[in-house]
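Q: what does this look like with zinc ion bound?
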Amino acid sequence: MITRIVNGICYSPEPLGQTNLLVAGRQIAALGEQAELEGSIVQTVDASDCYVVPGLVDSLAHIIGGGGEGGFRSRTSELKVTDAIEAGVTTLVGVLGTDAVTRTLTNLLAKAHALDEEGLTCYCHTGSYQVPAYTLMGDLLQDLVLIDKFIGVGEVAIADHRSSQPTVQELARLASQARVGGMLSGKAGIVSVHVGPSPEGITQLLQVASTTDIPITQFYPTHMNRNQALLQMGFDYVRQGGYIDLTTSTTAQDLAQGEIKCADALLQAVKAGVNLQQVTFSSDANASLPMFDAQNNFVGLGEGRIASLYEEMTDAIRLGVPVQDALRVVTANPARILKLPHKGQLQVGADADLLLIDKNTLQLKAVMAKGRWLFSDGRVAVQRSSLFF
Ligand code: ZN
């Protein structure tokens, strides 16, 4: 099937103006004046009054659930593919969370394959919250080099009473293994780092970068909008060449404890002149979002939502962040950092992962992933439904 999407206002995420786009099979085959094919095999979709943008890339999602810090009955649930599709997420990276005992890397890989079969593109990180890292084949290098779906390591927890309190040397060792594994396999080999609320924040990452030859870009710290002090530390970290990731799953309790909503944090970044190419959003979908009192006693738990990624991207536009900047943090930037050149951009040869968004209401109208419409007219179409009675 060849699909021609006409008259949409296209963002690659760079603005391309009102133009046409041709999808053949699972790829974008032509853009602009080249996209003029007519004929009976061509489905034409009128995207007037819509933004046509890349499908969202979610660099951190707990696809098999995250923790359960309130005991077994508080274990968070698996991600539903329909929730991802309705959120406009077409590529995601699954990770383990606080609980790497009852959630396993084998289960993570199986779920990633399921999401692929259901029409999305899903990768995973090997390793765990804890150091020494949990692995599938005995060490991180083997996992990265030999298992296609593993593209990085993590999330590894620092600055948190729930972390394994890794030393700077342990983090450096982990980063070096991820780096070499990435080199040998042609993958990102990035180390996703969960940054907790302890005041030291990302100090250990700066120490690794300053005391070894490992580049600062080997790390990908997340939850950097946890409080204003950490966000500020993150802006300085970007100025030193690092990447930062902001978490869109923010609850009312998080806000009360000082977390900065992603849309507001991005607006701050714009005003501070931070290089937005090094900033991303991720959903932290299906994570446990536990609340602790001043003595770190557990008091309750929320759950990360994948829908928050789309909500914060559109809220940023409503706040006045330029459309291309609100888009790049959820498309081209994570795709580049994760070394996925066929993702996160509208360009010829890229995978046909794209969204149609009403330009007036910013409501999601349609989702195409790998050349197939998975959502349109308010309805989700997934292969899985045909397998179950
Ligand atoms: Zn985390």
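The first helix runs from residue 81 to 86. The chain has a mean pLDDT of 94.
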